[in-house]
């Protein structure tokens, strides 16, 4: 199944000259393969309104934040939801409030832009003291870790949740 991870991208620049090739994404003019390109799917652009639909963005750096820390057989997001009173199983989950951008099932795997990252940073700061004592040290470590991730995405960047494959399956 894999473990969740968040990837923070910095130094985004819109690329409207990207061609999809069987071997990967390439510059339309030169044919050169592009390594550092983030695709923002239509559903992400619709949810966040910070990106063009279906657009490609070149980035200068990406940092992966594995959620393997703080999980110990549980979904860290469930513990966060319990802390802030967010019912992840409700038919009509709220569309505003703390951390809803990463807790609402509709937002899973969305590419979040700098505006959303800044809002989430404010949520992390507002709930910091409660997070320190809510669950256990592993929960708080993951809380701090993910706050760092969204801090990187807040300045001309983006953050996207993904899945990491376990090492045994990736090999």
SSE map:
Elements (H helix, E strand, L loop, with lengths): L2 E8 L2 E3 L2 E4 L2 E4 L9 E3 L2 H7 L7 E3 L2 E6 L9 H9 L15 H4 L7 E2 L1 H21 L2 H17 L3 E8 L2 H4 L1
Antiparallel strand pairs: 1-7, 1-9, 2-6, 3-4, 5-6, 8-9
Helix pairs in contact: 4-5
What is shown here, in short?
The protein is of the alpha+beta class and 171 residues long.
Helix content: 25-40%
Gross morphology is elongated
SSE sequence, one letter per element: EEEEEHEEHHEHHEH
User: How many individual domains?
Assistant: 1
Q: Order the strands across the largest sheet as they lie in space.
A: 7-1-9-8
Major β-sheet annotation = 4 strands, antiparallel
Task: List the total number of helices.
Answer: 6
Please give the oligomerization state of what you see: single chain
Structural class: alpha+beta
Q: Measured on Cα atoms, how large is the radius of gyration?
A: 17 Å
End-to-end distance = 15 Å
Strand content: 15-25%
**Number of DSSP strand runs:** 9
Ranges with pLDDT <50 over ≥5 residues?
Answer: none
Calculate the mean pLDDT score and round it.
Answer: 87
Plain-language structure description:
The protein is built from six helices and nine strands, in the order E-E-E-E-E-H-E-E-H-H-E-H-H-E-H. The protein has helices at 42-48, 76-84, 100-103, 114-134, 137-153, 167-170, and strands spanning 3-10, 13-15, 18-21, 24-27, 37-39, 56-58, 61-66, 111-112, 157-164. It has a four-stranded antiparallel β-sheet with strand order 7-1-9-8. The chain has a three-stranded antiparallel β-sheet with strand order 2-6-5, with no helix packed on it. It has a two-stranded antiparallel ribbon with strand order 3-4. Helix 4 (114-134) packs antiparallel against helix 5 (137-153).
């Amino acid at each position: 199944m894999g473990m969740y991870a968040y990837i923070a991208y910095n130094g985004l620049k819109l690329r409207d000259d990207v061609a999809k090739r069987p071997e990967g994404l390439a510059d339309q003019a030169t044919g050169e393969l592009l390594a550092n390109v983030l695709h923002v799917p239509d559903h992400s652009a619709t949810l966040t309104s910070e990106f063009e639909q279906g657009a490609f963005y070149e980035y200068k750096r990406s940092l992966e934040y594995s959620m393997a820390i703080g999980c110990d057989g549980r979904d860290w997001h469930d513990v966060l939801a319990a802390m802030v009173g967010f019912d992840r199983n409700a038919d009509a989950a709220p569309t505003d409030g703390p951390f809803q951008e990463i807790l609402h099932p509709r937002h899973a795997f969305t590419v979040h832009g700098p505006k959303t990252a800044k809002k989430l940073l404010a949520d992390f700061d507002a709930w910091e003291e409660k997070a320190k004592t809510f669950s256990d040290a592993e929960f708080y470590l993951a809380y701090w870790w993910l706050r760092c991730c969204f801090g990187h995405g807040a300045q001309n960047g983006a953050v996207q949740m993904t899945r990491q494959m376990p090492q045994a399956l990736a090999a």
